[in-house]
Amino acid sequence: MSADMKWERQCIEAVKKANKMLGLIKRNFEDKSKETVMPLYKSLVRLHLEYCCQVWSPYLSKDINLIEGVQRRATKLIKDIKHLSYDERLENLGLSHITTRRVRSDLIQTFKIINGIDKLINHCFSKLTMDNQVNYSKM
């Protein structure tokens, strides 16, 4: 994190690593079918975009677009669907936007903290008990 509390440097480094792996796939694999590219993308590229994203989750549009651009380029590698729009390519491949995956990851991490699966000091979350729940039906 930089002094201005932004994650731009982390985003740039993650995108550099992911683009290197994407270039490796593009150069070394002649078969650009869905069956070849998708497992390679999921195992070699996407992990760089999502590693510890609960900590450094980008919130600026430029950082989000930078990261999403890697997946956009990865989906264009697949020869049969490169002519489709980005959203159509994602649907065809059964993928979701990186931003959506980050939100899902945040929810999973929150669940783990609340339920004691991850051993963190839990000052931010507390379980509601029957005594302190708000009864919205009376409002």
Tell me the domain tally. 1
How many beta strands in the DSSP annotation? 0
What structural class do helix, strand and pairing data support? mainly alpha
**What proportion of the residues is helical, as a percent range?**
55-70%
What fraction of the residues are assigned to beta strands by DSSP?
under 5%
The stretches of 5 or more residues where confidence is low (pLDDT under 50) are none
Approximate shape: globular
Instruction: Give me the number of helical elements.
Output: 6
Largest sheet: none
Give the CA-CA distance, first to last residue.
44 Å
Q: Mean of the pLDDT scores? A: 82
**Alpha-carbon Rg, integer:** 19 Å
Task: Please specify the SSE layout and strand pairing.
Layout: H1 8-28, H2 34-50, H3 53-56, H4 61-76, H5 86-93, H6 98-114
Helix pairs in contact: 1-2, 1-4, 2-4
Primary descriptors:
139 residues, mainly alpha, 60% helix
Please give a structural write-up.
- This protein is an all-alpha fold.
- The chain has one domain.
- Helices cover 60% and strands 0% of the residues.
- Helix 1 runs parallel beside helix 4 and helix 2 (34-50) packs antiparallel against helix 4.
- It starts with 7 loop residues before the first helix and ends in a 25-residue tail after the last helix.
- The mean pLDDT is 82.
Summary, kept brief:
The protein has 6 helices and no strands. It has 139 residues and is mainly α.
